[in-house]
Each structure stands twice: as structure tokens, then as C-alpha cells.
Amino acid sequence: MGQRVTGLWPVLRQVTGSDKTAHGAAVRTAHTDAITARTETADRVVKSVCPFCAVGCGQDVYVKDEQVVQIEGDPDSPISRGRLCPKGSASKSLVTSPTRVTTVRYRRPGGTDWEDLPLATAMDMIADRVLQARHDGWQELDDRGRKLRRTMGFASLGGATLDNEENYLMKKLYTALGAVQIENQARI
Ligand code: SF4
Description:
The protein is α+β, with helices and mostly antiparallel strands and 188 residues long. The protein folds into 3 domains: 2-34, no CATH class; 44-96, N-terminal domain of TfIIb (Single Sheet); 104-187, no CATH class. The protein has helices spanning 2-6, 10-16, 30-34, 38-41, 86-89, 92-96, 119-136, 164-176; strands at 44-49, 58-64, 67-73, 104-106, 115-117, 138-141, 147-151, 156-157, 182-183. Iron/sulfur cluster binds next to helix 5. This is Dehydrogenase. Residues 43-99 form the 4Fe-4S Mo/W bis-MGD-type domain.
């Protein structure tokens, strides 16, 4: 019995067998042979970009029954060439974690606790505040009577993981609203 168990040790099979680097047969078990990778049973693969940091590594997102089942590095990405760091490798949990917050959370002024809001309500509240800030910070003319027609009521500072298309839309929206302080640090 003891000999049969020790004969299964991967390190023993590595040093006595032909798989000296232990990348193949030396580390396989009956269980390994019986299971199938989620990447092989997925319905489709969607190209994406890791949302964690400004490196912007390419990701292959594997989907089965419209659920994300696995995320791998995208070998076609010229930036990361199939690699993901530990954060990017774990990014599936951003979508599937049971602790993920999926409702709008709001703590009103003076409130001591968070409450759930319908998304439409939250969007209306944001729109109201933007319009109010735009109005309160509006400058029609400068001190010499020249036209400004701008608002200093709000500014935009985009994050590193906003992509070109998102920044394009944000710039268009905020400029149309009259904002002049619009910045981002996009790298993807
Ligand atoms: S995989 Fe890591 S290095 Fe690449 S974008 Fe994501 S967090 Fe950044």
C-alpha cells in the first residue's frame, strides 16, 4: 500500500520518469484526466480588456449559458500577449462573486445607513445635481463683457481604465454642457 501511494507522488514520477520539468505526465492524476476545462465547454469567447489597471491587458472571457465561466489572457493582445497578473486572473470574481454589489447604494445627507435605490431614481438624482451645478456655476460674460458661456460648476477627471470610446463620449457630453475642466488619464 505504502509503495503504491509513494509511487503516485508527482515528485517521484518527475525524477524517475521522462517528464523532468513536471509539466505533463508527472503531475497528472486520474482526477485530472477525468475533468474538462471550462474553456473547452464554453459557448463562446468574448474579447475584453482587464478593468483593474492602466496596463490594459487583453482578456478572453469565456461564456456559457450567458454566464462568465472563465477569464484568460488574450494571446492576440500586443500589450500582454496572453498574460494576466494575479489581479487580472481573478477578475472573473468581479462579475460572479456573491459579495458583488448589484444595487445602487445611497447614503443620504445626515443618514447613518446605506439604502437601496432604483437605478432610474439614482440616474434622475445625478442628472438633477449636474444641472443644478451647471446652473450655479454658469458664467455668461467675463469682467470685460466678453462672452464665456461656460460653467465652472463641475469638472471631470476620468480614470485610467476608461477607454478611448468612453472618453470620447464623456468629452462630448461635458463640453456640450459647457464644462471646460475635462481631463483623463486614459491609456487603453
Ligand atoms: S492583468 Fe494585471 S497588469 Fe494587466 S491590466 Fe489587469 S491588473 Fe493590470
